[in-house]
Amino acid sequence: QKDLHSTMTNRTSYFYDPDVGNFHYGTGHPMKPHRLSLTHSLVLHYGLYKKMMVFKPYKASQHDMCRFHSEDYIDFLQKVSPNNMQGFTKSLNTFNVGDDCPVFPGLFEFCSRYTGASLQGATQLNHKICDIAINWAGGLHHAKKFEASGFCYVNDIVISILELLKYHPRVLYIDIDIHHGDGVQEAFYLTDRVMTVSFHKYGNYFFPGTGKLNRIFIVGAESGRYYCLNVPLRDGIDDQSYRQLFQPVIKQVVDFYQPTCIVLQCGADSLGCDRLGCFNLSIRGHGECVEFVKSFKIPLLVLGGGGYTVRNVARCWTFETSLLVDESISDELPYSGEFPSTVCLPAQYLEQIRQTVFENLKMLNHAPSVQIHDVPSDMLSYERNDEADPEERGPEENYTSESSGAFPRSVLYESTEVFTHHVITADYKEKKKTKISRKDKGLLSSLFTLTIFHQSVSTQTLRLLHHHTSAVQT
Ligand SMILES: [Zn+2]
């Protein structure tokens, strides 16, 4: 399996903020940022840093976050703290913060760190500074435009993909977290510029409850096609069954869609023995997905995600770092023997899923084309060369928020597809006075994403959108 004759190593950038592992969601909360420090010490211990450019990442500003999120939500995240949260009762409810997504000391700082790292990874890929960018702190795929969800507050994935879209006509998003990548799917639901593919557990009210095997369909002449693919899976899926679906599906999607960049969310809660998960992947099996995606040799942004049995998460992401830099550590890392006996899913079930997925793919346009337009300026500008020294990681002073004009304005690709925003807004007109549904919020989220790149959205539409978003919060 291993590409033994390959001597060329990819240029890999690795982002790690020394403080990101010191945040605490609170006693008893399954999300432990400490897993990030643990992963990093293994990466250092195995000498993997020698094969990568290691950076202390940029910290995302409120402005960066508002590229996707609503201003009042981000403003709230920035202001709320355990000491003052009593005064935010209404907002806590509106923004879904409190239970699964608690208020903890340094919440905004935490978001700023993991988001900044993903964003910088995207920028480096755009400027061909690296071929692979790794941010294990990122991958918080449930965060929504208007609210927190499933331990995620700021969606670093959506923000990074928006940055990648400045240079890349087609971005493929692949999600192997056990949970459905709902926040990312929602944000790019109406565009063919991003294709989202999520493999996850579906059924029995498993969080977040979305992501059933969908039929990709066309909603009328002017609509954007739904470039999203969901592969719902059952409890206990093992390496072999997972591979039998993952590899042919991803191969087909890559051949078909021809992405110019791939974002891979590597949630480790799909491993066996996860505190919250119910799959049975081994670290080797999980890593095989990463290796397979890497084998296409397409610029790759690798992100973390879920993962709640801390020691396994750290082993998994260390092992995957080693795969990404073509360094063998598999004999040393204790990654086997800890997983329960595996469950092979019925062949018929796998075949049925595979068939449906392939039928869906047939309905899509091959590699949708794009037009060249002016682009918004870069989020980060590079003022001097990047450093590769792991001790003195690329200082953040290297990066300023927003372009100072030092970098030439880039090329923006815009989809030739016209999206049915007016169809959707017409629908909103009727519901003007009713409370906006969760689904509609999702569509709004997707529309807003489009407006960043599509000047064609009319003022009237924007006014309507504005009206409806205000309605959400009042
Ligand atoms: Zn998860």
Topology:
Layout: E1 12-15, H1 34-45, E2 53-55, H2 62-65, H3 71-79, H4 89-94, H5 107-126, E3 132-135, H6 156-164, E4 171-175, H7 182-187, E5 194-201, E6 228-233, H8 239-257, E7 261-265, H9 283-294, E8 300-303, H10 310-324, H11 347-362, E9 370-374, E10 380-382, E11 399-401, E12 411-415, H12 421-430, H13 438-453, H14 459-473
Parallel strand pairs: 1-2, 1-3, 3-8, 4-5, 4-7, 5-6, 7-8
Antiparallel strand pairs: 9-12, 10-11
Helix pairs in contact: 1-10, 5-6, 8-9, 8-11, 9-10, 12-14
Zinc ion binds at residues 177-179, 267, 269, 305-306.
> Share of helix among residues?
25-40%
CATH class of the largest domain: Alpha Beta
What characteristic shape results from the CA principal axes? globular
Distance between the termini: 57 Å
CATH H-level superfamily of the largest domain? Histone deacetylase domain
- Taken in chain order, the helices and strands follow as EHEHHHHEHEHEEHEHEHHEEEEHHH
Pfam family, one: Hist_deacetyl
GO molecular function: histone deacetylase activity, hydrolytic mechanism; metal ion binding
Organism: Echeneis naucrates
Binding site for substrate: 100, 150, 308
Features of the shown structure:
alpha/beta; globular; disordered N terminus; disordered C terminus; binds zinc ion; His_deacetylse_dom; repressor; chromatin regulator; transcription; hydrolase
